[in-house]
Design brief:
The chain has 420 residues and is an alpha+beta fold. The protein contains ten helices and 19 strands. The longest helix is centred in the first third of the chain and has 24 residues.
Length: 420
């Protein structure tokens, strides 16, 4: 029987649930959303001995994090050479350096704290779907190398050594990306935050946030919280609370996951080094191997000209399966055990939106355009260090690049709005 939960969430029932908010509580920092950004902010604030309380409408790791592919990715939603042209050198480098640093910090934390999150050091392969795309990927590799990052363009026999598929014509290989179990990462990070004094409440949806007498009052679950600062870190669902207004769009990623592949099936894929991979199509097809050797594939839902998000059960699993079997015809007949949908957010210029708060308004961070694990972790750390007066140079540049006060172009009007 096929599960409609993500491969990560389907085993979540074994964990011990946390209590929901009841009664009245006071805290220095109230964080809305217990996914990667909110839990990262909670952990880093708690390290600084700040009083922290986290409110989550479901459970720790639900939402975009628990429905993600579990890949730590550098950059944002566009190629680096395009980012240089569209954003300028300073802003593009700020975004790429932040995500590279975020991946390094996560890897260090996973090792130091022995977090069992199925972490794998494997890198990435970015594949050209058409022969004409090879010129684009050569330009991408050259741009990355010009600014000190590692990247190699391969084609022909060298490409076949990396992936055994006739669907692609060239690729850029980078060493930075990592695979992991995103739910175990964020729940492990949450446990570390609690160990340092943070309080986390599940099944506590936020109903209303207001500012009065110099503090924020939050009505959530069956209780009330009074806080000096509020950080909204619920990604696409932040828009339900009105943060930010008309600057972002939501879209859906759809995923399928196979049964564990046997040795012969794994060998037939030729994914040397177990690299994560995606291609140059607009509604990309991304795939990776899980720790137990399942093939996980994901594609985004792109609706040209606007309109409703395509119904998950009717279209998307079939589309992804068609893609995967065209890429790897040797897998036809392999059983699909999971397929699911996750909602994420993107800003109109495809740069994350971060507001560090004003006197009467909360801080917020969202819109990572599918690169949420590395970006969200770093964003949570940067926001926490802002309030701790402990920002590094990389964090300052990242927060500057992501400032929500920037002007917004209208380049993503085709992305479907969040469904209610």
């Amino acid at each position: 029987m096929v599960s409609h939960e993500s491969i990560w969430l389907s085993g979540n029932g074994k964990r011990k649930p946390k209590g929901s908010l009841k009664g009245f509580h006071e805290t220095g920092f109230a964080i809305v959303g217990a996914v990667i950004t909110g839990i990262s902010a909670a952990y880093h604030l708690a390290l600084g001995k700040k009083k922290v309380l986290v409110l989550e409408k479901d459970f720790v790791g639900a939402g975009a994090t628990g429905n993600s592919a579990g890949i730590l990715v550098i950059g944002n939603g566009i190629d680096f050479h395009l980012a240089l042209r569209q954003y300028g050198k300073r802003k593009a480098l700020a975004l790429w350096k932040a995500t590279i640093k975020g991946i390094e910090l996560i890897e260090s934390l996973v090792r130091e704290k022995s977090m069992g999150c199925e972490f794998e050091r494997n890198g990435n392969i970015y594949l050209s779907w058409k022969p004409s795309h090879n010129a684009i990927l050569r330009k991408e590799a050259e741009a990355l190398r010009r600014f000190g990052m590692k990247a190699d363009f391969v084609e022909g026999h060298e490409l076949w050594k990396s992936i055994k598929s006739e669907s692609f014509f060239g690729a850029v290989k980078t060493p930075y990306e990592r695979n992991l179990n995103p739910l175990k990462l964020v729940q492990g990070l949450g446990a570390l935050a609690e160990k340092n004094g943070a309080r986390i409440f599940e099944n506590s949806p936020v109903h209303k946030i207001r500012f009065e007498h110099g503090e924020f009052i939050i009505n959530a679950g069956k209780g009330t919280v009074r806080a000096r600062e509020v950080i909204i870190a619920a990604n696409a669902w932040s828009m339900k609370l009105g943060y930010p207004d008309k600057k972002t769009r939501a879209y859906s990623d759809y995923a399928v996951c196979t049964q564990p592949l046997d040795r012969m099936q794994l060998r037939s894929l030729g994914l040397i080094g177990r690299r994560a991979a995606w291609d140059t199509r607009q509604d990309y097809c991304m795939f990776r191997l899980t720790k137990d050797n399942r093939l996980l594939a994901m594609a985004c839902d792109v609706v040209e000209g606007g309109g409703k998000i395509v119904t998950f059960k009717k279209r998307s699993p079939a589309k992804i399966l068609k893609n995967i079997f065209s890429i790897f015809p040797q897998l036809k007949g392999v059983q699909i055990t999971h397929h699911w949908m996750g909602t994420t957010a993107v800003a109109k210029d495809m740069i994350p939106l971060i507001n560090l708060g004003e006197k009467t308004k909360p801080a917020y961070s969202l819109a990572y355009d599918g690169n949420g694990l590395a970006t969200g972790f770093f964003a949570g750390r940067a926001i926490a260090n802002h309030f701790r007066n402990k920002l590094s140079g990389t964090e300052k540049e990242f927060l500057w690049a992501c400032s929500a006060k920037r002007k917004m172009p209208k380049i993503l009007d085709w992305v479907a709005p969040l469904e209610t």
